Known about the structure:
Elements: H1 4-13, H2 19-25, H3 37-47, H4 86-91, E1 100-105, E2 110-115
Antiparallel strand pairs: 1-2
Helix pairs in contact: 1-3
Amino acid sequence: MLEGKELLEKAKLLSKKSEEEIAKGCGYVGPSGRILRKSFYRALIEAKGYKIGDGRQGKNGNRASRGRKTEFKTKVHGNGNLLIGHAYTKKLGLEPGQEFKIELKKELKTIYLIPLN
């Protein structure tokens, strides 16, 4: 992701393109391919010389971060699926493709994932 003077120069070169293409051309793309618009715009503002905070306010508390937090809870979706998010698999060091045996303890309504490899 470009920042500062490099960001301004690249954005200027791409100025005839769409906002999405400019952000992408400056490297503001997440691992899933999603355009990181907020990060891109913040970087542009800072590159122009404006100092801005990180968007969060602390205990004095007006506004907390809107990002997702690891809460160790989930819910069953309308389609019956139960999702365990990236934050949790990352925390356990699990890798894509890793396989598990699922054990159910029906009386306790508990699900165990047992690694197979």
